[in-house]
Design a protein that fits this description.
This protein is α+β, with helices and mostly antiparallel strands and about 120 residues long. It folds into 2 domains: about 70 residues, Rossmann fold; about 40 residues, no CATH class. The chain contains 3 helices and 4 strands, in the order βββαβαα. It has a 4-stranded mixed β-sheet with strand order 1-4-2-3, with helices on one face. The N and C termini lie far apart (about 40 Å). The relative contact order is 0.19.
Length: about 120
């Protein structure tokens, strides 16, 4: 499934997304809209499909049905794997900046905008 561009104020929009595994529904009829600057928490019990949903959004897996619209290409998205580990003397920001999974220019802009108490 490809991502369509140009969705107005939304950074990400998903319509009617569904996913099955060996014929067993993992989730169905997922709809979401995330606007620029919005923070989102994805919570649910173990095995409810949270990681699978995120995996589909970043392109490691695919939805069986549905549409994705994004303001940004997947090359501009940043993520950390569920089991990534930051070593004891390393800061999270340092880890992210050296990670090949995070677009440095996008992350640098995010840090300056959201984490700088002087802004």
């Amino acid at each position: 499934m490809s991502i369509s561009r140009g969705i107005g104020n939304d950074s990400l929009k998903v319509e009617d997304a569904s996913k099955t595994c060996n014929g067993i529904p993992i989730f169905s009829d997922v709809n979401l809209e995330i606007e620029e600057g919005e923070h989102v928490y994805l919570i649910g019990p173990n095995g409810s499909g949270k990681t699978t949903l995120l995996s589909c959004l970043i392109g490691h897996d695919h939805f069986d049905h549905g549409n994705i619209y994004s303001k940004y290409s997947r090359d501009e998205w940043g993520y950390l794997e569920q089991n990534d580990y930051v070593h004891g003397d390393e800061s999270l920001i340092g880890y992210l900046m050296k990670s090949n999974q995070v677009n440095y220019e996008i992350w640098k802009k995010y840090i300056l905008v959201t984490c700088n108490p002087m802004s």
